[in-house]
C-alpha cells in the first residue's frame, strides 16, 4: 500500500457522503393532553374511539427520532422522507380514523444526550414513535419508552432490543441476518473448513450483536474469525485492513456505517487485497459508488431485511420508487427508503387496527400491534409481531451492487433463512 493511500481513500469516501441533510418535520408544538370528545371514526365499534396522549379530534401525532447529521445521516434522511411520503399518502386518502397523521421529527445526530433531550421534548405529545435510529440510542432510552408505553419502531435490528413490550424490531435481527449472509459468503467466496474470515465491527450494540452471529456461523462452518473492533466514529480503516491482510483472511465481514464500509472497500483495493466483503444494508449508501463502484460491484455482498429498491418484480416496491422520486426529485433511492416506508407501513397498519378496535390510546395501539401475525406489506415476506421475544421474521435478502440500478443495488437472492438461523439461540432479553 502506497504511503498516504489510506488517508486519501478516507477523504474521498467522506466527501462522497457529505450530504446536505434537511429534516422534513411537520412538527406541531400545540399541547395535547389527549382529552376532549371522541368523534366518530369509520370502522370503530359504535362509531366511537377512545383516545389519549398524541391524539386529538383531528390529528394523530407520531414521533421520529432520527440521525440527520451524524454517521447514519444518509439512512436517517431517506427513512424520514419515506415515512413522510407514506403518511402524506395516507392523509391524502382521508387519514386514519378521520384524523390527519402528523410527524414530529427530531435530529439526535447519533448523540446520546441529544437523543434524550429530543425524547423528553416529544414523548408527552405523541401516541408512538415510528422511527428511532440506532441500537445504542434505543438501548439508552428503552426504560423511558417502556415506562411511557410508547410503541416504538427502531431503525435498528439488534436482538438485544427483543423482549420489550412496546419496542418492536421490524425485521430480522443483525445476528440472524448475518448467519443467513454468512452461508452466502461461504458458498460464493468460497470458504473451506480451516479458513479465516475477518470481522470489522463497531464497538456498540450493532457491532456486538452482529459479532454473535458471525461467531456462531463461523464455528458451524469450521472457520475462524479474526476480529477488528473499531469506534463508531473511526474513519480510517487502513490499520484494520492491514491487520486482516497480515492474518491471511479469505473474506471480510463489516458491521459498520457507510463511512467505514466505503474506506474498507477502497483500502482493500489499493492494497491489492481483493477478497470478498459482506456488509449489512445499513453500511451501504449509493453515494459510495462515486469513489468505490468498481470494488463494490466486484466484491461486496449485502444482507438486508428488505429487498433492493430496484426490485421491479414486486409492484409495491416499483411504485414506491416512482412515488419517492416524484415527491423528492433529485434524491437518491437507497435502502433507507425501503426501511422507512416499511416501518411507516407497519405503524400505519397498527393505527388502522387500533381504530377498528375503537381504541387509539397508547395501550390500544400496542394491543393492536401484537395481534398482527401475518402482515404483508408487498415486500416479499410476512411479519409476525405476536411475540416480543423473537424477531418478526428470520428471513434475509442478499443484495449485490450494480451501479446501473436504482439505488445501486439488485436483489440476487430473495427472502430466505438458512437452517442455522432458527437453531441459533438468541441472546437473553427482557
Please sum up the structure shown.
The chain has helices at 5-16, 73-92, 112-122, 135-148, 174-188, 205-221, 238-247, 258-270, 289-299, 315-327, 335-356, 362-370, 419-423, and strands at 59-66, 100-107, 128-133, 151-155, 196-202, 224-230, 251-255, 277-280, 300-304, 375-376, 382-383, 396-401, 409-416.
List keywords for this structure.
430 residues; alpha/beta; Rossmann fold; 7-stranded mixed sheet; 4-stranded parallel sheet; 13 strands; 40% helix; 17% strand
Q: Could you name the ranges where pLDDT drops below 50 across 5 or more consecutive residues?
A: 19-46
Helix percentage: 40-55%
Output the helix-strand order: HEHEHEHEHEHEHEHEHEHHHEEEEH
Shape: globular
**Tally of contiguous helical segments:** 13
Give the name of the CATH architecture of the largest domain.
3-Layer(aba) Sandwich
CATH superfamily annotation of the largest domain: Response regulator
Number of domains: 2
CATH class division of the largest domain = Alpha Beta
Average of pLDDT: 90
Alpha-beta classification: alpha/beta
As laid out across the biggest beta sheet, the strand order is 6-5-7-8-9-12-13
Oligomer: single chain
Count the E strands: 13
Amino acid at each position: 500500500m502506497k504511503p498516504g493511500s489510506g488517508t486519501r481513500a478516507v477523504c474521498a469516501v467522506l466527501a462522497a457522503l457529505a450530504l446536505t441533510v434537511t429534516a422534513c418535520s411537520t412538527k406541531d408544538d400545540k399541547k395535547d393532553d389527549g382529552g376532549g370528545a371522541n368523534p366518530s371514526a369509520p370502522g370503530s365499534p359504535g362509531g366511537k374511539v377512545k383516545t389519549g396522549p398524541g391524539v386529538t379530534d383531528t390529528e394523530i401525532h407520531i414521533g421520529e427520532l432520527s440521525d440527520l447529521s451524524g454517521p447514519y445521516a444518509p439512512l436517517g434522511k431517506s427513512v424520514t422522507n419515506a415515512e413522510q411520503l407514506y403518511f402524506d399518502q395516507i392523509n391524502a386518502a382521508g387519514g386514519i380514523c378521520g384524523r390527519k397523521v402528523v410527524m414530529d421529527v427530531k435530529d439526535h445526530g447519533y448523540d446520546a444526550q441529544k437523543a434524550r433531550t429530543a425524547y423528553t421534548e416529544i414523548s408527552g405529545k405523541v401516541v408512538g414513535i415510528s422511527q428511532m435510529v440506532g441500537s445504542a440510542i434505543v438501548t439508552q432510552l428503552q426504560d423511558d419508552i417502556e415506562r411511557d408505553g410508547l410503541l416504538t419502531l427502531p431503525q435498528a435490528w439488534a436482538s438485544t432490543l427483543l423482549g420489550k413490550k412496546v419496542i418492536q424490531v421490524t425485521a430480522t435481527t443483525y445476528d440472524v441476518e448475518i448467519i443467513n449472509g454468512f452461508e452466502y459468503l461461504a458458498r460464493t467466496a468460497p470458504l473451506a473448513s480451516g479458513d479465516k474470515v475477518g470481522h470489522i465491527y463497531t464497538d456498540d450494540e450493532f457491532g456486538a450483536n452482529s459479532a454473535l452471529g458471525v461467531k456462531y456461523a463461523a464455528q458451524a462452518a469450521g472457520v475462524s474469525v479474526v476480529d477488528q473492533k473499531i469506534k463508531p466514529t473511526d474513519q480510517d480503516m487502513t490499520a484494520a485492513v492491514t491487520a486482516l491482510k497480515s492474518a491471511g483472511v479469505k473474506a471480510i465481514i463489516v458491521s459498520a456505517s457507510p463511512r467505514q464500509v466505503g474506506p474498507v472497500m477502497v483500502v482493500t483495493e489499493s492494497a491489492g487485497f481483493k477478497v470478498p466483503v459482506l456488509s449489512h444494508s445499513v453500511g451501504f449508501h449509493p453515494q459510495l459508488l462515486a469513489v468505490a463502484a468498481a470494488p463494490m460491484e466486484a466484491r461486496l455482498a449485502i444482507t438486508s431485511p428488505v429487498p433492493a429498491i430496484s426490485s421491479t418484480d414486486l409492484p409495491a416496491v416499483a411504485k414506491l420508487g416512482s412515488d419517492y422520486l416524484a415527491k423528492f426529485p433529485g434524491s437518491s433511492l437507497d435502502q433507507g427508503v425501503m426501511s422507512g416506508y416499511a416501518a411507516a407501513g407497519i405503524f400505519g397498519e397498527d393505527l388502522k387496527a387500533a381504530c377498528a378496535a375503537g381504541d387509539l390510546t397508547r395501550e390500544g395501539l400496542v394491543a393492536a400491534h401484537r395481534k398482527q401475525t401475518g402482515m404483508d406489506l408487498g415486500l416479499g415476506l410476512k411479519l409476525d409481531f405476536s411475540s416480543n421475544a423473537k424477531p418478526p421474521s428470520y428471513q434475509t435478502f442478499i443484495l449485490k451492487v450494480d451501479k446501473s440500478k436504482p439505488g445501486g443495488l439488485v436483489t440476487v437472492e430473495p427472502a430466505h433463512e438458512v437452517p442455522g438461523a432458527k437453531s441459533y439461540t438468541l441472546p437473553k432479553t427482557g
